[in-house]
Amino acid sequence: MFGIWGHTKAAEITYYGLHAMQHRGQDGAGLVTSDGESLKLHKDIGLVNDVFEQAEFADLSGHAAIGHIRNATHDDGNIENVQPLVFRSQTGGMALAHNGNIMNAYTLRGELEGEGSIFQTTSDTEVLAHLIRRNGKMTTKDAISDALEKVVGAYGFLILTEDKMYVALDARGIRPLSIGRLGDAYVVASETCAFNIIGATFEREVLPGELITISDEGIESTRFSVREPRRLCAMEYVYLSRPDSDLNEVNVHASRKRMGIELGKEAPVEADVVTGVPDSSISAAIGYAEECGLPYEMGVIKNRYVGRTFIQPSQELRDQGVKMKLSPVRGIVEGKRVVMIDDSIVRGTTCRRIVGLLKEAGAKEVHVRIASPRIENPCYYGIDMSTRKELIAANHSTAEIEEIMGADSVAFLSAEGMKHAIVKDKTIHQGICNACFTGDYPVLVDETT
Ligand code: SF4
């Protein structure tokens, strides 16, 4: 998500902000502007570049905008579900963008439908819009606050009306969300890499349970929930975020490198060369190589014009993507004992193919080292790992995974090693969610009923 308030080029800047975060989803993109009188929307299925062409910006005038890029999680890539969602009524318009998952959406939707609400989409985001509208007699801020109190899950929300922008983060801060400044304008983004690209400066993280109102009068912070200890998604550090983003004052590349160092301490191996699966594993591979005193080499290269394999919705597409995407460098790996670092194993498909590619290219041995723990549990907080049966580590021992991969050895970083690599002592709100690795869920599933 990206939002801006107080800039004459709000739509264009939102486009650049979304473009910087394209790695977070490739199924759709949209943005809504406000010129103080009305909301204007443009959205479509596809990449940011495909959705927005120069001509579109003439129709997207306004000093404020919110934008969203979509990662379809349940084969729900219809245009209706591409965000922001816009709702119009006699009292004005409201646009919503949402990152995460509302765990009690099904129950809330049932209640709302029972009271006469008619839904336009299958998106859980729409539930919040109906909850807000139901509180029509309150001020918009109080209506949003009241609606957020009813929502259980892991989420960041951006809400734009004609005259205000609202920013909210769940009570545990599971999803990332930061505020910055661009001259006099306020900017909001899921990742700070979006600030870097537009020349904005980072101000602070949105706090767990915080509701921020931004308008021409300035910025106001309130709380809609008791603030729970922060539990930021560890997968943001492991895989999801860009290396130049900072989360909770911790740089993503630096944390990945530390994960590689911890992995080197926990699972060293006799080898000639260390290589990483581009792009998200390279930082960890550098750390592992440094710790083990081995050379880091680019043993696998990536075709940059193919989307991320983990995010594409079907297995068939994932298989195709891997073939198109990665190539071994024969001159580097031939006749060598190779340590191949991957950031994580979800389904195992990509990792298995790369081991095969390295062996085909003449690697004598391939030792797989994973810079995060075994993912044995589904994520209920908006990351596309929603069933145990798709998770290779939930169904196989490490020895079995070794065999499936065709690797000479496989080892994972421990949960303690990962936490040590991510959490720095100096920051106060720095707990992480590591539920998919450990089963320690910060929001219990039965809270949704
Ligand atoms: S369960 Fe895993 S992927 Fe989901 S929010 Fe927690 S750490 Fe992130």
Topology readout:
Elements: E1 2-5, H1 10-20, E2 28-34, E3 39-45, H2 48-51, E4 64-70, E5 85-89, E6 92-102, H3 105-114, H4 125-134, H5 140-150, E7 153-160, E8 165-169, E9 178-182, E10 185-189, H6 193-198, E11 201-205, E12 210-215, E13 218-223, E14 232-233, H7 234-240, E15 246-247, E16 250-251, H8 252-266, E17 273-276, H9 282-292, E18 300-302, H10 315-325, E19 326-328, H11 330-333, E20 337-342, H12 349-360, E21 365-370, H13 392-395, H14 398-405, E22 409-412, H15 415-422, E23 432-433, H16 435-438
Parallel strand pairs: 14-23, 17-20, 20-21, 21-22
Antiparallel strand pairs: 1-4, 1-10, 2-3, 2-4, 5-6, 6-7, 7-8, 8-12, 9-10, 9-11, 12-13, 15-16, 18-19
Helix pairs in contact: 3-4, 4-5, 8-9, 8-15
Amount of helix: 25-40%
What would the principal axes of the Cα set say about the shape?
Answer: elongated
* Rg result: 22 Å
Strand order of the largest sheet: 3-2-4-1-10-9-11
Write out key terms for the chains shown:
449 residues, elongated, alpha+beta, binds iron/sulfur cluster, 6-stranded antiparallel sheet, 7-stranded antiparallel sheet, 16 helices, 30% helix
